[in-house]
Amino acid sequence: MLKDHTLLLITCFAGVGGVACNRPRACARCDTIVVAAVSEPQALLPPLIWESVGRDIADLVYQRLAVLDGGGPPTDLAAYQPALATRWERLDSLRWRFILRRVARWHDGTPITTADVAFSFAAYQDSLLDSPARRSLEGLSVRVESDSSVLLTFARSYPEQLYDATWHVRIIPRHVWEPIPRDRWSSDTAIAHLVGSGPYRVARWDRGQSLTLERVPEARAVARQVIWRFAASAEAAANLVLSHEADVLETVPDPARRHEFIADTSLALFPYPSAVYGYLGFQLTGSGALSDRRVRQALGLALDRTQLVEAVFGPGTAVPAGPMSRMLWLWDDREPAPMDTSAAGALLDQAGWRRRADGSRRRSGQPLLVDILVPATSLTRRALAVAIQQRWSRLGVQAAVTAIDFPVFQERLGNGKFETYIGAWLDEPSPRSLSEQWTGAGWGAQNYGKYGNPVFDSLFAGVMAAATPQQARDLWRQALDTLAADQPAVFLYTLTNTAVASKRIEAFRVDAYGWTRYLPDWRPVRD
C-alpha cells in the first residue's frame, strides 16, 4: 500500500487529470474525485451517445425534464421527481403540459426556455442523428406555449407517456447547436459547445486519457472536480484504483480479483443489483442445426446455469427466467429449468444427432459443431463460453470459442455472422427496449438471431399496454413461457455488481440505471 503522502502526490499529480496543489498535504482538500472508466465515449452530446460511460458523464452535464426513481414501474406517476420542469399535468389521453423552472440557465448564463425543449426533442427524433431513443419518440410532437410552458402531444394513448417524455431526452441548448448543421454534430469536438444545465460542466478532454468536469458555481454538488480516467480494459481500470490513481470503480471486473480490493484497507466495497442480464443467443436463420428447436432446447438442458454462473461471477448471481435483470420491475423469480442431460440427449437423438463410438454426435456423417462468439475484452464472457464448451462436450457437442475485438463482435452480430454468442444487455426501467431484441420489430436492430413468434409479440404488446402492473406481470409470465418453449437463447445471469470507492469518499451510493446519479452528493474527505 502506498504511503499517505505518496497517495496525496498521486491525486494531485498533473498527469492524473490536471489537479494542482501547492503542497502535498493540501491534496486531501482538493475536492476531487477520480473515476476509473472502461473505454472512452465517442461523444458527449446526448442525442449522439450510445455508450454507458458517455451517458454517465453527460448526465452530470445535462438535465431531463423530470427524473424517475429507480426500481419502480414507469407507469407510477408518483415515482417522478422535478428536474428542469417543476411540475407537469396530463390534459387528456394524448397531451401533457410541462412548466419549466423560471430561474433555469445554461452554463453560459443563457436562460433555458421551452424553445430549447422543442429543439432537443426534434434532435432526438432526427433520422440523420439516429439517436438510440428515436424509435421511442416516434409520433410525439412538441409545441411551445410560452417561455416556461411546453405542450407534448402523443400519437396514441398508452401507459408510459410520462416515461417517454422524461427518460430519453436530455435538454440541449438551441442557441449553441442550431447554427451548426446536424451533419457536422458528430464531428464537432469543441468543448465550448458542450454547454449544459447540470451540476458540472466539461472543463477539459484529453482524448484517449481523461476528461475533467468542474462544478458550476450555483450547483449543490460537493466535489469541485470530477475526473474520468479512461482505461483500455476492465482490468486496467481496476488497476487504477488498486494503485490509488483513481478513487472509484463502477464494478469489480473479475470476481477472482475481489480479494485484492478487500485486502486494501483504504478501499470500501458496495454491492448493488445490476440492471444487466446476460444470455447465450442462437442464430435461428438458415438450415443449420440451431434452426431446430429441439437442438436449442437440448443445449439449454445440458447446462446447470446456477452452478455455471456462480463459478464465473460468484455466489449471489441469479439466473433469470427470461430477458430481464433483477432491477426490472417485471422481474420473475421462478427457478431456472434444471439441468437434464438425459432429456437433452433424447432431444438430440430425435433431431437425428446420434452418438458415435468416439462420443461425438453426428448426422449424415457430419459432426454437431457449434461456435460461441464472445468479445475479447470481456474476461467473464470468455470464461462463460469456455465453461459452456466443456459442458456441451459431455453431450457429444463439439464447441469452439471465438474471441474477437468488440467492434468486430458487434459488426458480426449486426451482419448475422455467428452461430451463438454471449451477449449482455443493460435494462432500462421500461421493458419496451426488449422488443428490439426479442420481437419481430427488432429485426435489423438488436434481434440478431432473428427470433420471431407472433404469440410472443402479441403478449409483449399486451404487457406494454396493460392498465395495471399486475396485469402486465401476468402477461409477462405467459410471454416468458413462450420464450422458454422456443429457446431463442439461454438466459444465463443477472448480477450483483460491486462498486469500489476510496474511503476518502463519503456518502457514496449508486443507482443501477445510472451509477453516477448520486455523484453530486459524494463527499471527498478533507483534512
List its salient traits.
527 residues; alpha+beta; D-Maltodextrin-Binding Protein, domain 2; Dipeptide-binding Protein, domain 3; ten-stranded mixed beta sheet; 16 helices
Walk me through what this model shows.
It is globular and about 80 Å long. The strands form 5 sheets. It has a 10-stranded mixed beta sheet with strand order 8-9-10-1-11-19-12-18-16-17, sandwiched between helices. A 4-stranded antiparallel beta sheet has the order 4-5-7-6, covered by helices on one side. Strands 13-14-15 form a 3-stranded antiparallel beta sheet, covered by helices on one side. It has 3 domains: 4-60 and 198-266 and 503-524, Periplasmic binding protein-like II (D-Maltodextrin-Binding Protein, domain 2, 3-Layer(aba) Sandwich); 66-177, Alpha-Beta Complex (Dipeptide-binding Protein, domain 1), CATH 3.90.76; 274-496, Roll (Dipeptide-binding Protein, domain 3). With 527 residues, it is α+β, with helices and mostly antiparallel strands. It has 16 helices and 21 strands. Strand 16 (369-375), helix 12 and strand 17 (398-404) form a beta-alpha-beta unit.
